[in-house]
Amino acid sequence: MVYLINMNYLIIVESPNKEKTIKKYLSDEYEVLASVGHIVKMSTSGDGRLGIDFENWEPKYSIDPIKKDVVEKLRKHAKKADIVYIATDLDREGEAIGDNLVEFLNIKDKYKRIRYNEITKEAVLSAIANPSVIDDNLVKAQKSRRMLDRIIGFKLTNLIKTKLSNYPIAPTAGRVQSIALKLVVDRENEIKSFIPVKYHTIDAIVNDEITATYFNPENKEIDKNWILPEHINEIYNSLKGPLVVDTVTTSIKNDASITPLKQAVLYRKADMSSKSTQSALQKLYEGFGDGGLISYPRTDSTRLSIPFLLGAKSYIKKVFGPEYVSETIKGIAGDQDAHEAIRPTDIGLTPQKAMQKYSLSSAENKIYSLIYYITMQAIMTVPKREIIRYNLKNSGHFFKLTSSKVIFDGYLKLKKYEASKELPKYKKDEIIHVKEYINNAHETKPPSRFNDGSLIQKLDEIKVGRPSTFATTISKIIDRKFVEKEGKALQATKFGEEVIKKLIEGFPNEITEGYTARVEADLDLIAEGKIDYKFTMEQFWNRFNESYKTAELTLEKTILIPRLVGELCELDQGQLIYKNSRKNEEFIGCINFPECTFTKNPATKKRFSFLKKLKK
To answer: Which one of 85, 167, 296, 324 is the catalytic residue?
Structure first.
């Protein structure tokens, strides 16, 4: 006689938006609940209120008070479950959340770790069928990151507050945040110090559709199309009459192959605010009730999985033909290669179908279309073009004329494209009549300011920060009034310039791109189990403390010039200035704070006032 034993299973995810979707894939034996991110909070007790057990190099954690009800619910269901599946995200933070769940729910003896790169039925069922355990090295890397950020953030923030006064909002510092600010300030300084270079170009207008361009093959130090001001009159005045075909060259050229998307590149290509991009990515990943539309977005990898590639190639072969399937795919593994590039979960779900099925917002549609088409382009054959180049002569000077004709459309077949206008077929020594020669004056432009996307890509290129923190970092430097937006451009404020100047003055060896990248590399080595995290933390702490003690003694206090209201304080006749609260709300306060704590809102409505006793 066979007895069936009813089992109870609990799956814990991070986001409540995943609960119903994943529940649909499973039988009634499974319960799906969300931790709603981290369930623990790092203490602010102990030495320097850092919340660190320095003897054992462990963060001091306790249940986050705002997660008390969530934890109680998880405990209740975990107690009844025979197996608890930890299904948190794939990065270090997700692994740490999972580790905290195991510890604080007391489920060490009955948990299993499951990982999936997309929210689809196949991916979730495959993960449940192939469980593993918490990756202790990833947890150690996250703990190290958390302690590093707490030490650097707390200590530098506290120090900078004592070395600046009259700031509009309390200044903060951070391991990645301060480097992001430094990049913006450095770019601003480049723009201010930029000296433009003047140069000329010459166009030979053949007709309304054909224009040849001057070039000098002898130019070594400057662009071959450039003519410096001291030579322009001599060259331009010598140009008379028609051009003569000197050489004709025909070649076949392939367009560039496309690399699948990692998060940092997507932010740049999206050309939206980091907040909007992040929100759209998360929504597309979690889906609209019946599965996610894209794979895990917080990735620094550009590789595509073999199962996905096989399915996508089969789709392309069926829809477009075998000649459109590329034999080679660009893509590399990232530093944290637990997942692949950002891609659609269903290659058959075109952007048009996705919009019809899910009524995507404009941001979601823009991001999904970007991901879909770049993924398809990466797997399809590259276009081929016939290039005809004419070298033309007049008075000993050269002009070039180039014709490009698509002879195989490749991935261009995905969208309508405008075919290049073909030139007439010229022969060597043929005369080409010129309507006029035009002298164009130019000067070089300064480097452009960063926007959200280009700053994130820069941070990624120099290996500072991680995909999960990029958008938050941009938000921080804006919220702290270090940077402001002019349109989409990020411009450093005077306050931001003073803060980074003070930090670099006090910590010239730590507030650098190189140092921060080395710290990030050490975290990767910890995650790979190649170095001991306690030894690494001890070394960092000793070096950092020496720098901190020196800065504490040598940094002078700077009085910032505040934004004046143009009125005097009614309590002590001090100048009133504009300030910002911890909630980033603007208010008016007395310049003599903390001796005088008079405040009112900018609409002149008095909020409260309190005058401390002044020392006689």
So the answer is: 296
Q: If DSSP codes are grouped into helix, strand and coil, which group holds residue 72?
A: helix
Q: What does the block give as tokens for 561? A: 């010039």
Cα 53 from Cα 412, distance rounded (Å): 58
pLDDT of residue 579: 84
> Alpha-carbon distance 84 to 87, whole Å?
9
| SS3 call for 555 | coil
What secondary structure does DSSP assign to 89-108, as a single string?
Answer: -SSHHHHHHHHHHHHHTT-T
β partners of residue 30: 9
Tokens of 123: 């991916």
**Confidence at residue 611, expressed as pLDDT on a 0 to 100 scale:** 35
| Residue 614: per-residue pLDDT | 33
> Closest by alpha carbon to 164, among 560, 582, 613, 428?
560
In total, the chain counts a number of residues equal to 616
Beta carbons within 10 angstroms of residue 321's beta carbon: 11
Percent helix / strand / coil, the chain, rounded to 5: 40, 20, 40
DSSP state of 485: E
Establish whether 296 is a catalytic residue: yes
Report pTM: 0.86
∠ CA 510-515-518, nearest 5°, is: 145
Q: How far apart, in whole angstroms, are the C-alpha atoms of residue 362 and residue 614?
A: 58
pLDDT along the chain (616 residues), means of 10: 69 94 94 96 92 96 96 96 96 95 97 95 95 97 96 95 88 95 97 96 95 94 94 96 96 95 94 94 92 93 91 96 90 57 96 96 97 97 95 96 94 87 90 97 96 95 87 93 94 95 95 94 95 96 95 91 87 89 81 89 52 33
Q: Decide if 262 contacts 341 (C-beta within 8 A).
A: yes
> In this structure, are residues 127 and 144 in contact, taking their beta carbons and an 8 Å threshold?
no
**Which letter, b or e, does each residue of 156-170 get, where b requires 16 or more Cβ atoms within 10 Å of its Cβ?**
beebbeebbebbbbe
Q: Which two tokens stand for residue 216?
A: 């000098």
Amino acid at 439: N
| Crossing angle for the helix pair 362-379 and 351-358, to the nearest 10 degrees | 150
CA 331, CA 375: separation in Å to the nearest integer?
A: 11
Pairing state of beta strands 564-568 and 558-559?
unpaired
Both tokens of 11, joined, read: 């799956």
